[in-house]
Each structure stands twice: as structure tokens, then as C-alpha cells.
Amino acid sequence: MTDDTTENTDFRPEARAPRGFADKRARDLRAERAILEAVSAVYERYGFEALDTGAFEYADALGKFLPDSDRPNEGVFALQDDDDQWMALRYDLTAPLARFTAQNWETLPKPFRRYAFGPVWRNEKPGPGRFRQFIQCDADTVGSARPEADAEIIAMAVEGLEAAGLPRGAAVLKINNRKLLNGLLTAAGADSAGQKLAVLRAVDKLDRLGVDGVRLLLGEGRLDESGDFTKGAGLKGKAIDSVLDFVQAGAGGRSATLDNIAKVVAGSAEGDEGLAELSRIDAALTSLGIADDQAFIDPSIVRGLEYYTGAVFEAELLLSTTDEKGNKVSFGSIGGGGRYDDLVARFTGNVTPATGFSFGVSRLAAALRAAGREPGGAARGPVVVITFDQAHMPEYFSVVGQLRAAGIPAEVYLGTSGMKPQMKYADRRNAPAVVMLGGDEIAAGTVTIKDLDAGRMAAEGLADNAAWKAERPGQQTIPRDQLVAAVRKIIGG
Amino acid sequence: MTDDTTENTDFRPEARAPRGFADKRARDLRAERAILEAVSAVYERYGFEALDTGAFEYADALGKFLPDSDRPNEGVFALQDDDDQWMALRYDLTAPLARFTAQNWETLPKPFRRYAFGPVWRNEKPGPGRFRQFIQCDADTVGSARPEADAEIIAMAVEGLEAAGLPRGAAVLKINNRKLLNGLLTAAGADSAGQKLAVLRAVDKLDRLGVDGVRLLLGEGRLDESGDFTKGAGLKGKAIDSVLDFVQAGAGGRSATLDNIAKVVAGSAEGDEGLAELSRIDAALTSLGIADDQAFIDPSIVRGLEYYTGAVFEAELLLSTTDEKGNKVSFGSIGGGGRYDDLVARFTGNVTPATGFSFGVSRLAAALRAAGREPGGAARGPVVVITFDQAHMPEYFSVVGQLRAAGIPAEVYLGTSGMKPQMKYADRRNAPAVVMLGGDEIAAGTVTIKDLDAGRMAAEGLADNAAWKAERPGQQTIPRDQLVAAVRKIIGG
Hints:
Rossmann fold, five-stranded mixed sheet, homodimer, 2 domains, alpha+beta, 39% helix
């Protein structure tokens, strides 16, 4: 390798990526691609068609202008086009879908069922594990108000996550409906938008604060340990009891939960509507073969976004790992979604029923890996053919050609270093084996193979008995026409 | 579908994408994914590892600051981060590779062989067929000065394009080396950078202006038909003859061309170096099984970018199509690359030899399609189960479940329209068939299948004989357990 120092003393930029943007190497990409391929196959089997929109949308289409500002929200990456219009990088895949659907409504098959995946960008403060670009995967049905459309999204999410590598029992879809709590609050006279939002915020803290903490937040307010007071939603005793009864109505089985909910929300028109929708979702899920342990109704699920108008879903990972102190760490929510009927109306003025589910691909890949389930299986490097002599290049290339023709990744080392650095190179590439062709081998029509996998396993104490060693000679010299078979034995192909 | 007009009279953004950004539907995405999957498999077999960097780089790392400007070049999409540093969206995949390599040099396996694909962004004036975001696919070897590294890139490009759907003979890699012309010009005394650039520009017009036009541009200059005068490179008679001999030295076979070139460039050190490199590329290509019709040496190839320092490659499509007037339209160049030894040095000050090849994925997909070779094969819609009655939803879902379990894309129509719009929906989805379950079928345990593919073929006059009609009944009622087999017969699965 040439290593001459140039005489150029001009400005030299520092080689670094902007904060919050990750360089992804082969292992990460392999995992993400395996997940996306498996999930796409499921979504296409459900009749959803692929769509990809550009990275930019006009900022007004994203709805990301602050009320009293002449610039888009700081949460997006925005710039002015040369006609002075503000464009911003998409921060999710739903806003571009709403724009696309509104733009093409007349010619689209309706309901419009689409899935999409790709990067989204958030202009937020980066930190450890917090990126400003990440991959999302979404599926939505636009133009169907039927609860069966929600059920299909849920069933597809269940099947998609299983295909991505989460065995049954490793994840669950939790379902709720915004109309239930809304109806209950309206019946209790707590029907201002602000009060409803305060109730949702309180309910959302059930996991963290428990029933007693939420009770305080539903009422006058709560003083935390640090002495800070959070003002409550201002509900009265009976309404508080109803809300707490509701959020605790989950009973494992979907039918039993529906019975419990019916007792609490009975009598409010909106609550009854929500209940009827959930019942139809339950029936469709049953028809689609989705059991109670794969998707259940959990009235405590909130989902942050304000735009949900009916059913909401959350996918929770039941996998866990342990931290450095040996404590169990749960991965929690991996995605979610729900029914949003107002997004397309922003453009057209016409309410257009829609429902969808979104999950974070990089997040799922990380969780699967932490739980010991590498998506796409372990990555393998190429077989490396060691370079001894420029004059023998044709022989080296002939050997890699043989391996590649058999579908085995292989390469000739093309640096200029000696034997030891070449072995180190092969190790860094995670090569299963190196192939050596010296003058003797070439004269004899043989090759020498060194089994690096065997070396790695021995180093990990995984292969320390005589039978195994006999089976896996660390190094062997064989006729060239036995090369492919010998390498296959090493890589187990 | 709800279609209530909301009473919201707030601002309604227009539903449109920013200029130059395309919405891609299923067919385009299927084609691009098929190409990328096939090419990735080839590149991995050659031992190249996948890499993806973030969309943004610091503008100084991209080298996209104009000399006397405090803003990045207008050709990129740039914005200031909250620490006031300018970031810009990547405009190719080479600049991020140079940054990544410089940043991680110590820990990378060397030579570093990586491939990458993904969107790049160019802030240029959009127009018909001219986009500001498009997909590139690159492979590069960083840290090897060996001509064999160039040969591998060329061989891999040949094999990759064949895997992407270009049969042998539909594309060719043309190879040249910058050092040949440079050496020739130095020997002729024409060695200023400006004069060399003018010669390259003149040679690049050989296709369009022919030998006589180029001769004028190599000398004093050329007056075109419109009366505009283009100043020439200012070469003298003998030098002009040498350049014209050189660019016409191509002889089909690589060996014969090398012999021709040797006669023209003999005696210049740089020319001899270029010739030696090309000879080693030729030898390695032969070892790798790449024949003269797949990759040949063409001394007239220039490749625009100024950063190439040695070998240059261009992939030319030999496919053609006909325009509306029946004239033959060639697709021309689909990609290219070459050796660039100075990009990493921008960061580190150390010259680092590198070589690579890049092609436009959307452009290749469009060319393959225009030539009648749809990448990934024809896209198929899902089988659509017609919805007659909400009460029968469980039956409909049971039937789609049966089809999906057999791997056949299928869906229940989830709109609320009647029979005719549902048939229209199925047609828009390009459904091969619709399945109907009325009360009679449900009672009898049967399904009725309507073969939409047969209808389409009949409409195109492709299926107008009695034998075919007997084989493909337009509509049939069969027991439910024969459904999968009947649909398979229609889709040919």
C-alpha cells in the first residue's frame, strides 16, 4: 500500500460523521435486511403494495410549522428550496403517505393498502443509542373505516414480527380504543379536550406510578419525592374510580376483557361505539387465527400521538436481557399504531379513515441481537486466498473463481503485506478459511487449506476433544478439485 | 368509506411532492430491489462487505465548499446544524466512503473492500427524467494499488450487471487508463494541466463530432454550424496525430488493442506505467474468465470526473429501444468508475490507492424495462375475496388465511362498495383472480373463482381458441379444499 505523505498543505477536514448519524457495517445491515425481507414477504402476502416517497416533503405538508414561526419546527431537518419554499426531511412514513394519498386519491385502488420502509430523520439532540436517522417499517390501510381493517393490521404485525425472528411468546400486540375512555369521561362530565389529555397522560404513567399514583394524577394532583407537584386532571371520586376500573379491565383473554370493559363504559354512545369496534376486531382476529397470547386487549395502552381517533395498538417485546449488574432489562415497546381519520383531511378537507402499524427496524434488530437471536444468522466473511507471488496471480484467481462459481464468497488478498498480516486480515474479515498456493502446491495441482473456524472454536473452548480434531484438521493439503467440498465442510454449507 | 366534509376551514396545504422527488410504486420498487439483491449477492461472493453511512456528511468532508463562499456548493442540499456546522446530504457514495475510511483506517481490514447502495441527492434543476434523489450502487477497494484490484472491480461489474438481468452481449465494460494519454501529451510537450484538460474534453466529443471535429478541437479550435467558435487545445500536427492514433487504437480484442497502444505511447514513462497496468488488468480479467466481448480496452473513454488517476471504466448498455418515430435509441452509459488515489488523502494527507465502480439503479431498471426485460419479473396483485355480507366475514377471512398459508398473496376487500366497484378494485390491483362466497357457496362448502388473468389475456387477443378456453374456465365453483390448487393453476405457481 502506498503511504506517501502528500506535499499538499491545504485545509484538511476532520474525518467524522455528523452527530447522531451511524455508519452501519455488514453485520447491522445483514440484520436489518433480513428483518425487512421477512416482514415485506408477510405484508405482500396480506395484499399490501410497496410504496416509497422521496426523502423531502414540503414543510407545510408535514404540518411541521410552529404556530407563530416563519420556520419549520426544530424537530425536522428543513431547508429552503431555490423557489424559497421550505422543504423538510420526512420524520415518519405516515405524513408522506397522507400527502401521497391525498394527491393520488382519484386513481388509487380503494381501500389503499401500502407498506413502506426506509430512513426517517429527526432533528433532535443525539445521545448514546439516540440517532437522528433510523429505519422505520410501516403498513397502513387508507379508506376503510371497518374494524376488520384494524384487525388485519394487527394480525399482520403479529405475523410480521414472528417472521422477523420473534418466536411466538416473544412479543405481543396490545389493543385499546380511544373511544372507550373518551366515552367514559364524557359520561362523567369531564369532556374538555384539556381534561381528556390530562387523563391520558395520567393513565400513561400506570406502569411507573402504579394505581395510587395515577389516582392522585386523575384527581387534584401529585407531589413526587423530589417535592415537585404535578397538577392533576381534576376528576371527582366516582369518575376516578371508573377510569381506574377501566384501565385495569384487562383479563388476558380478549372476550373476558371485552365483558369487563362493557360493565365500565356502558351507557355512553362513544364508549359503546368503541366497544363494538373492539368486538369486531376480536372476531376478525379470531377468524385470522390470532390467539389471545398473540394479541390481547389492554385498556391501559395510551400511545402518545394525539392524532389517533379510535383503535390503538402497541407491540411489546417480552424478550429481556440482563445488564452488567445482572438485572433483567425488558425491551418494552417496539412499535405501535392505530386508527387516524384526520391526516388526509388536512389536505382534502374530507375525513378519510385510515389505520396502520409502524415499528423501528434498527431497534428490533438490536433487541433480537441482545436476546441472542442474530437476525439473518451469523455473518460470514469470504475465504481468503493468500498472495505469495505476483507471478502466480492467475492460479489464485483460478481458485477464487472455483469457489465463487460454487456460491462461496472468496477473494484473493490484494494488499502487498506478508504472510502474517494476511492471516490477520483473514481473521478480521471473519474468514472461515484461508487457501494457500505456494510453488509446491501449484506444481502438484494441490491447495493447502487452513481452517480458521476450527481455530476460533478451539480458542473459545468449544472444540477440545480428539474426535472433533480428527474431523477438523487445522490445515490440510488436498487436490484442487476437492477444494469446494473441503470448504463446504468447514462452513457447513 | 366516510366522505364527510369537515367544517375545518383552516389552512389546507396542497398535496404535492417537492420537484424532482419521485413517488415509487410497487412495480418500480420490485425492479430496483431485484437488481440490488442480485448485484449484492455477486458483490458478496467477491468478498465485498456491505456498508451504509448516514444521509448527511459535514460539508467540508464532502469538499463541496466553493472557494470564495461561506456556504456549501449549490449542487448539494445543505443546512446548518444547531452548532452552526454546515451539513449536506451525500451526493454520491464515494465521498462518504473516503470519510469513513479515513476515520476508521487503523481498525479496518486492509485492503478494505466494501459495497454500498442507497439514495444520493443532487440539488440540481429537476426536469423530465431528471431527479434530485436517485439510487446508486457502488463497490470500491481502498488500500490496494494493484491493477488486479481494478480487474476484480471490472469483473464484478460485468457479473453484477449480468445478474441484474443484462444477458451477455447486452452490456460491455470499456477500460482505459489516464496515464496513457497523459504520458503521450507529456512526451509531446503539452504538459500543462489546462492543456491536458482541453485534450480530454476534445477526446470526449469523438462520438459526436467524429475524428475531423476532434482534430480541430485538438488544434486551434472549431467553428460549429451555429457560428460559435470553440477554442482548441493548441496541439501541433504531430501531437494531434498521436492523440488521434491513440484514441482509435481500439481493436476489439484486449491483446491487440494493447499492442496498438504500445506503438503510440512508447517512450513516455507515465505511458509505459499505464500500459503495464492495463496489461496486468487484462491478464487478471482473463484469469477471472472475463472475455473480450464482456470487457475491452477503449482508449477513447474519458469519464468526466477529474479525480481519476489511473484506470477508468465505463459500462455501456448495448440494448436499445425505438422511439415513437421508430428510430433506434441507445441507452449508452449506465455507470463507470476508475482508480482515484487522492480522495482519502484529503483527510489524512496520506495517498491511499482506491478503485471502484458505480451504477445508477433506477436508470438500469428503466433501461431493462424499456428493452422488455422487467427486472424481478412481472408484478402480481393479490387474490381478492369479494365482500357481500358483514355476517360472513369469518368465512372470507378463513379463505384468505388458506391462500396466505399457501404463500399466495390474498386479501378480503375491506371497503364498503358493491360488486361492480369491487371487481374494478381487483382489476386495479392486478389481481389474478377474485374469490366469491355467497350464501349458497357457504352452505355448500364451495367457492366461486373468477379468473381475471384469463379475461386480460382474452382482451389482448392472446387466448382466443377453444382448447385454451376449456383449460381456463373464466369462472368456476369448486369445493373449498380445491381453492389453492385452482388459484395456483391461474397464477402458474
